[in-house]
Amino acid sequence: MSRIVSDIECPNCGAPLKLSPGELVATCRYCGYTSVVGANTPFQLEHSLIVNELDSTRIAQYLQDWMRSGFMKPGDLAKKSRITIVELRYLPFWLVPLTATSTYEGVLERISPPTQRRGAIENNYDWLVLGRKAAEFPTRDYKVPSEGKIPFDFTKIESKSNFLNSELDSSEAIAHAKDEVEENQRFLLKQEVDQVTRFDTTFNVEKPTYLHAPLWFVQYEYKGKSYNAIIDGSSGTVIRADIPQTDFKMI
Q1: Tens digit of pLDDT for each residue in 43-90?
Q2: 99-108: b or e for each residue (b if 16 or more CB lie within 10 Å)?
Q3: What is residue 235's three-state secondary structure?
Q4: Cβ distance 102 to 194 under 8 Å?
Q5: Do the beta carbons of residue 129 and residue 196 sit within 8 Å?
Q6: What's the pLDDT tens digit per position in 1-33?
Q7: Which of 66, 213, 225, 249 has the fewest other C-beta atoms within 10 Å?
Q8: What are residue 239's DSSP bridge partners?
C-alpha cells in the first residue's frame, strides 16, 4: 500500500481501521480483532501480547541503574546525564518455530594434512522476526518473556503508547526467518570446515505466533550529545543502549 487506508472497516465490529502505508496486519483499537488486510477470506489471526509492567518513572530508574553498573562507562554518566525522551511502543513480531538441517561437505585446513569432511548440523529455533520492513531492532538481543505472554487484550494497551501493525504477513516472516537461520547455520559451519564445497539446508516450520511486545525507547543527553536506549517493558531489562566514548588514561 502506498497511502493511508481510511475506508477499511474492522471485519468484527465495523469500526474504522487506522493503517499506515505498508501495513498488512491490522488490529482494531476498539474490539481487539486482528486480521490480514486484503485477505480473500476474512479470518482472525491468532495474536498474543506481552504485558507492559512499567511506567516512565521506573524506566528512568532502570536506565540510571544501568548507567551506574558495568565497565567502559564514564564514572559520572548517571549523575551528569539527562533523559530527554521516553516513549512506549508496541512492536509487532513473528515468532517462527523451525528446525534447520544443513548438510555439508568441505575441507578442514587448520590441521595438517587438510582433511575432507562431511556431515550435518541440525538445530531447533524459535526465531524472532520484526514485523517492520524499514525499522531496525536488535532481535537477537531480545528474548521474548514467554511467562508474560497472554492472548491479545486491547484493553491493556496504554492509550498514549505508539502501537504499530505488522508490514509482514506470516509467509514473509517465515521467509525472513529461513534466510537468517540459514546464515546462522553457515556461521556454525565455520567450526567444522574452513573451505565449503557443498551446503544445503532444509527446514521444518511450525505455525508462527504473531505478538506485540512493549518496548521503551529512551533518549538521553550526556555532555551535549544524544544517546539511545531500548528497555523491555515487561522486565526492565536494558536490551541495548549507547555508551558514550571514554578516554581511559594510564596514571
Answers
A1: 667 899 999 999 999 999 999 999 998 888 998 999 999 999 999 999
A2: ebebebebee
A3: coil
A4: no
A5: no
A6: 334 444 688 888 888 887 788 888 888 888 888
A7: 249
A8: none
Contact 59, 218 (CB under 8 A): yes
* 34 HSE (CA, 13 A, CB side): 21
User: What is the Cα–Cα distance from 187 to 182, expressed in whole angstroms?
Assistant: 9
Could you give the 3-state DSSP secondary structure of residue 154?
helix
Whole-structure pTM value:
0.88
12 close to 111: Cβ distance less than 8 angstroms: no
Number of Cβ within a 10 Å radius of residue 213:
24
Longest dimension (CA), the chain: 72
> What does residue 100 show for φ and ψ, rounded to 5 degrees?
-115, 125
CA dist 172 and 10 (Å) reads 23
Counting Cα atoms < 13 Å in the Cβ hemisphere of 19 gives 27
Contact 229, 208 (CB under 8 A): no
Considering only CA atoms, which of 69, 90, 62, 86 is closest in space to residue 219?
86
Domain residue ranges of the chain, discontinuous segments joined by +: 1-45, 46-241
